[in-house]
Amino acid sequence: MITTKQIYETRKKEVELCYSVLLDLYLDEQPNGKTMIIDKTHTERFAPILKSNILLMLYNLVEACVTSGFVEIYDSIKDNGLAYKDLIESIRNIWSNYEIGKTRTSTSTQTTYERKVRDIIATVISDSSIALTKDALAISGNLDAKEIRRLLAGHSISISDKTDKFNMLLVKNKRNDLAHGLDSFADSARDITIKQLADIKEEVLNFIGEVITCMTLYYNGQLYRVRV
Q1: Rounded to an integer, what is the distance from CA 46 to the centroid of its chain?
Q2: Can you tell me the distance from the alpha carbon of 122 to that of 78, in angstroms, rounded to the nearest whole number?
Q3: What are the angstrom distances between the C-alpha of 46 and each of 13, 16, 20, 145, 160?
Q4: Contact in structure between 46 and 25 (CB atoms under 8 Å)
Q5: CA separation (Å) from 78 to 99, 104, 153?
Q6: Is the torsion defined by CA of 163, 166, 171, 177 positive or negative?
Q7: What residues does each domain of the chain span?
Q8: Dihedral angle sign, alpha carbons of residues 86, 91, 92, 95
Q9: Which of 101, 156, 165, 198 fits a disulfide with 90 by CB distance 3.0 to 4.6 angstroms?
Q10: pLDDT by residue (tens digit) across 74-114?
């Protein structure tokens, strides 16, 4: 999980830097060592845009870390040359559903579907190693705490934090509204206070930190393998 942890730390620092700049905007007097000077009018115009950017950065951190974590697990399965019989049921299901799902297009035919099923059977009975990619996750701007827990459970990864994460949901919804043009950067986070933004940031960073810890234990222990 080295790559995932590096992504987390790098993006966390980026978020913290932008948040510190936001705090500076509201200082009546710049402390020693600070060179940024901006008048009240520009602060009122720029601060809401910066808040929206911080929410967007938080969601990007969430998606990048979760995706990277699962990809590292998938890469470990591939690097170890594991076959269908070597894997726990949940990973078997993810792989078979992913492979069958490749035939579900508007141009798919019964023949295409049957060929894919035969390929899956051949892979299973020949003990060939299996491969999974991030496409198996079907992540597309939909990651809140509930969805992340669903993905973890689907891989048989346990996480102890079961509390509601309303700020995680808020970050996801704000990101989607910005991405789809339903909200402007100037308006999206205008009514979110500095204190609220700090709480949002803390919740997201802490939760994803816990997720990475759980994925690391799963990865290091190769808990995707059948115990013999």
Answers
A1: 28
A2: 18
A3: 21, 17, 14, 30, 39
A4: yes
A5: 15, 25, 21
A6: positive
A7: 2-81+133-220
A8: negative
A9: 156
A10: 999 999 999 999 999 999 999 999 988 877 765 667 777 78
Q: How many CB atoms lie within 10 A of CB 137?
A: 20
Q: Among all chains, which residue has been given the structure tokens 């969805």?
A: 147
**Tokens describing residue 148:** 């992340």
| Residue 29 pLDDT class (50, 70, 90 cuts) | very low
Residue range 126-165, pLDDT digits in tens? 888 999 999 999 898 899 999 999 999 999 999 999 888 9
pLDDT digits (tens, 9 = 90+) for 3-19: 999 999 999 999 999 99
Distance CA 76, CA 224 (A): 10
Cβ-proximal residues to 25 (8 Å cutoff; 6+ apart), any chain: 36, 38, 43, 46, 47, 50
CA angle 107, 142, 154 (to 5 degrees): 80
Q: Give the model confidence (pLDDT) of 45-69 as tens digits.
A: 888 999 999 999 999 999 999 999 9
90: which residues sit within 8 A by CB, 6+ positions away? 154, 155, 156
The letter for the amino acid at 172 is: K
Give the whole-angstrom CA distance, residue 51 versus residue 191. 10
pTM for the full predicted model: 0.90
